[in-house]
Amino acid sequence: MEPYSQLRKPVQIQAYKYPDRLHYEWQADLIELNEQYAMVACHAGRLFQHHTKQKQFIMPYPSIEIFFFEEWYTFSVSFQENGEMMHYCNIAMPAQIENNIISFIDLDLDYLQEPHEDWKVVDEEEFIHNQQMFKYPEDLIEGARLGLAKLQQIVVTKQFPFDEKIDIQKYESVL
Questions:
Q1: Helix (H, G, I), strand (E, B), or coil: what is residue 66?
Q2: Separation CA 76–CA 138 (nearest Å)
Q3: Distance between CA atoms of 73 and 62, rounded to whole angstroms?
Q4: 0.90 cut: is pTM over it?
Q5: pLDDT digit string (tens) for 134-170?
Q6: Residue 38 to residues 8, 13, 56, 135, 167: CA-CA distances in angstroms?
Q7: In the chain, at which residue ranges do the beta strands (DSSP E only) sit?
Q8: In whole angstroms, what is the distance from residue 73 CA to residue 145 CA?
Q9: Which residues, including other chains, have CB under 8 Å from residue 21's CB and lie 6 or more apart?
Q10: Once rounded to an integer, what is the mean pLDDT over residues 34-53?
Q11: What are the helix (H) ranges across the chain?
């Protein structure tokens, strides 16, 4: 692992579905890397390749995203035109970084907050369906549930990255 640094180099983000099916991917700029996480800046207008749906999307808003190496979730905050922020977190196996590729296994559950709305868990039906279809092992199911519970707790207690230290002004130069 590279030592802590302020970087600005291109990386590819790859999300997989259990056990190893490429789900979606996009480009970003690595802006911070340490032993706990990789932080990336994603530019407005980036191409989002959704392999499962066999579609491509253009993402209209810039975002800051964090991929944790020991936690069972990811973090994204997108900065919308009116200055409002949307938070989106995937429940996922801990991320990995190798050869300028950040990858993780998306475990279906998402925890999100749209502007002026409360936090909510989505895709619980997909999580239950995929547990059966892809025979998720018990430790994977437990890891996902514990990851969601921890994520909900750090949102309530306003711990990083929900401590309001990530804002567009701090990262304007990289977005």
A1: strand
A2: 27
A3: 20
A4: yes
A5: 999 999 999 999 999 999 999 999 999 998 777 656 6
A6: 12, 11, 25, 30, 17
A7: 9-17, 21-33, 37-42, 46-50, 55-59, 63-68, 74-79, 85-92, 96-98, 101-113, 120-122
A8: 11
A9: 51, 52
A10: 94
A11: 124-133, 138-156, 168-171
